[in-house]
């Protein structure tokens, strides 16, 4: 593929093209760094949204302590780019992954998560045999009912067992308040987050009362960070999608203070009816599951539906002169599920192409 030369404008790009506004993304990064500094906690932004080592390097340069990853494969590409403080916020199971984790540990300082000794034993053994040790957190289920030990005694028992395991360096607890992001009433949202993160912090306190050090208490996503970051006892938050922001966070999670930094440039490829236009961007280009994409470059145009490779637009009379070949700028409804569909980000400053970032973690599902 021929990549566009630097200093191209968004209108010069072949489409569909996923674009980042650098000024806005950097402002979002600064906002998150400042929000964490104010609370005297660390920021370890989740990289599952951007999957790009180039962005991870930028985040660390701006003040993040490292990144959170969803998969061993994502952590591997981050480590290869020199980002070494990596929380893999997921359970790692299977001989192949354990072997890769040992290799990763030789190059980087990852943290893994366990909610059962059956995950921890093979990792500990492999690390110990290699003369290594790996930091480990317990994932605590603070109400989301996904993975995780129950708070309190079951978590304390697992912590005590992990602290004894050769090859494992027990490092603390993590929990994700993903079940609370969409609570509409801010008072209720704050209260529920305080209660559920409170169980995480209490678990850490009970673990410590058994003379087991618990330096890390990690939680927090973009949809909740405004409340989570100020909860007493936590040491870091994982909010990552904040760097791009989107309509899902704004409309459904009521996130404020962040700017929309991600756009998609599309081309009108058909005008089959006066009130209908078709663009070259469907479900394989943008995700519409959580929130529909929105046209921001023109008035009077609504995204009516997405099929695999076509986007159907409904036109008001004011947009009736839209023509085949016209370029449109859209905002993805949910950045996370949209970025993963693309090979690269085109990063612009003042409409001038400054950088191209491959999503090297894309497809690294193992
Ligand atoms: C473990 C974990 N941490 C944090 C997040 C929040 O990610 P983001 O801030 O990108 O919405 C998620 C979202 O799924 C998650 O699963």
Summarize this entry quickly.
With 366 residues, this protein is of the alpha/beta class. It has helices at residues 22-39, 53-62, 72-80, 95-107, 117-129, 153-164, 186-209, 225-228, 247-252, 335-339, and strands at residues 17-21, 42-43, 67-69, 86-91, 111-114, 134-139, 168-174, 216-219, 236-237, 262-273, 276-279, 294-295, 301-306, 311-315, 327-331, 344-349, 352-358. The chain has 2 domains: 10-17 and 258-358, Lyase, Ornithine Decarboxylase, Chain A, domain 1, CATH 2.40.37; 22-245, Alpha-Beta Barrel (TIM Barrel).
Top keywords for this entry?
17 strands; Lyase, Ornithine Decarboxylase, Chain A, domain 1; eight-stranded parallel sheet; 23% strand; binds pyridoxal-5'-phosphate; TIM Barrel; single chain; 366 residues
CATH superfamily of the largest domain: Alanine racemase
Q: Can you tell me the overall shape?
A: elongated
Named at the architecture level, the CATH assignment of the largest domain is Alpha-Beta Barrel
Q: Helical residue percent?
A: 25-40%
Overall number of structural domains: 2
Number of strand elements: 17
Task: Give the rounded overall mean pLDDT.
Answer: 98
Indicate the structural class. alpha/beta
Q: What's the CATH class of the largest domain, please?
A: Alpha Beta
**How large, in whole angstroms, is the Cα Rg?**
22 Å
Count the DSSP helices. Answer: 10
Order of helices and strands: EHEHEHEHEHEHEHEHEHEEEEEEHEE
Fraction in beta strands? 15-25%
């Amino acid at each position: 593929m021929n990549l566009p030369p630097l200093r191209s404008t968004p209108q010069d790009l072949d489409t569909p093209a996923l674009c980042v506004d650098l000024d806005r993304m950097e402002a979002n990064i600064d906002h998150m760094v400042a929000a964490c500094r104010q609370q005297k906690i660390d920021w370890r932004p989740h990289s599952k949204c951007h999957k790009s080592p180039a962005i991870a390097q930028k985040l660390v340069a701006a003040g993040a302590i490292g990144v959170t990853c969803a998969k061993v494969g994502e952590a591997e590409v981050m480590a290869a780019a020199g980002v070494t403080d990596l929380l893999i916020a997921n359970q790692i199971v299977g001989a192949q992954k354990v072997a890769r984790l040992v290799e990763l540990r030789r190059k980087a300082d990852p943290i893994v998560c366990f909610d059962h000794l059956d995950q921890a034993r093979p990792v500990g053994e492999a690390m110990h045999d290699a003369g290594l040790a790996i930091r480990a957190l317990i994932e605590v289920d603070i109400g989301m009912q996904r993975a995780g030990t129950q708070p309190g005694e079951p978590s304390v028992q697992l912590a005590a067992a992990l602290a004894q395991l050769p090859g494992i360096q027990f490092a603390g607890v993590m929990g994700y308040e993903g079940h609370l992001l969409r609570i509409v009433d801010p008072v209720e949202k704050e209260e529920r987050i305080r209660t559920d993160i409170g169980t995480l912090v209490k678990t850490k306190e009970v673990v410590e009362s058994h003379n087991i050090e618990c330096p890390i208490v990690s939680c927090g996503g973009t949809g909740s960070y405004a409340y989570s970051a100020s909860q007493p006892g936590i040491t870091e938050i994982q909010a990552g999608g904040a760097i791009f922001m989107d309509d899902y966070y704004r409309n459904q999670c009521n996130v404020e203070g962040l700017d929309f930094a991600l756009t998609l440039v599309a081309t009108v490829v058909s005008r089959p009816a006066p009130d209908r236009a078709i663009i070259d961007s469907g479900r394989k280009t943008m995700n519409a599951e959580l929130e529909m994409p929105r046209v921001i470059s023109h008035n009077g145009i609504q995204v009516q539906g997405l099929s695999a490779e076509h986007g159907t637009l409904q036109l008001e009379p004011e947009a009736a002169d839209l023509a085949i070949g016209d370029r449109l700028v859209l905002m993805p409804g949910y950045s996370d599920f949209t970025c993963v569909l693309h090979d690269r980000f085109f990063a612009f400053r003042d409409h001038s192409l400054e950088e191209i970032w491959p999503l090297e973690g894309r497809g690294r599902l193992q």
